[in-house]
Amino acid sequence: MRTAIKALVVVVTLWAGMAQAADRMIIVSGTSEKGLDPNLVSMTVEVWSKAQTAKVAQQTAANQFRQVKKVFDDFKIKKEDIQTDNYSLNPEYVYDQKTQTNKMVGFRVVQSLVVTLRKVDEAGPFLDALVTDKQTKDSGVNVNSINWDSDKRSAAETSALGDAVRATKVKAEEIAKAAGVKIKGVTRISHGAQTTQPPVPLMRNFAMKAMADSAPTELSAGQIKVRVEVTAEYEIN
After folding, report:
1. 74 within a domain of the structure (yes/no)
2. For residue 166, how far is the Cα from the chain centroid?
3. Hey, CA dihedral for 53, 59, 62, 68, is it positive or negative?
4. What CATH number does the domain containing 118 carry?
5. Digitized pLDDT (tens) for each residue of the chain, 237 residues in all
6. Quick check: is 58 in a domain?
7. How many domains in the chain?
8. Within 10 Å of residue 69's Cβ, how many Cβ atoms?
């Protein structure tokens, strides 16, 4: 019984000590943001076709893809920068008002690719190059999204992280000075990071030949913002 009581006393003492240590904390947060000029741009390119039979729809899609592939080659896009994100072959239906049922009218093939360009100034010309005179109402190319990025983002995040940690220390020291105490050391640090870019909604259908006669496409990349937030706990005496 005495041993149990002694163990209980030790546990209570340790807990009380930990509680007191937790009370001697200054908890602060610091943020830092870095701006980057994009040097990468990725697009979702969708090649589609439709026909009365699945085989013809596939053949038409394959022909359309060859035209798109030539554009990729002309812009010297590397194989590792082209990824098929989705491929689908599905029947198409229309609603028959007379019979009040869905009637199958053919098949549609959709191949979605994520393409990365490493020369951002070629983004506009690349989009324009996807326009060809051979596209018809039964096949075409859509560009559904565009995203800017930089291969220096990781380095910018590391730099911002250091700035954010230093900001927490400055805050903690200022608070400690005002409170008449001193900082003994840091006990815990946590952080989070996020990357934002200007929204670039893009839904462009290149199936119509008339698009070939339009003005050249111009895209504004803006800047990528890398933001880091740090929360730090400093022990005081």
Report:
1. yes
2. 28
3. negative
4. 3.30.70.2970
5. 544 444 433 333 333 444 455 568 999 999 999 999 999 999 999 999 999 999 999 999 999 999 999 999 999 999 999 999 999 999 999 988 888 889 999 999 999 999 999 999 999 999 999 875 555 688 999 998 899 999 999 999 999 999 999 999 999 999 999 999 999 999 999 999 888 876 554 544 444 444 445 567 888 888 999 999 999 999 998
6. yes
7. 1
8. 14
Instruction: Examine residue 2 and state whether it is found in any structural domain, yes or no.
Output: no
Can you give the residue range of the structural domain that contains 56? 46-141+200-221
Q: Three-state SS string across the chain, please?
A: CHHHHHHHHHHHHHHHHHHHHHHCEEEEEEEEEEEECCCEEEEEEEEEEEECCHHHHHHHHHHHHHHHHHHHHHCCCCHHHEEEEEEEEEEEEEEECCCCEEEEEEEEEEEEEEEEECCHHHHHHHHHHCCCCCCECCEEEEEEEEEEECCCHHHHHHHHHHHHHHHHHHHHHHHHHHHCCCEEEEEEEEEEEEEECCCCEEEEECCCHHHHHCCCCCCCCCCEEEEEEEEEEEEEC
Tell me the sheet residues that pair with 186: 234
The amino acid that residue 12 corresponds to is V
Q: Is residue 66 part of a domain?
A: yes
- Amino acid present at 50: K
Give the pair of three-digit tokens for residue 67: 């035209």
Q: Distances in Å between the alpha carbon of 42 and those of 48, 129, 189, 193?
A: 19, 16, 35, 21
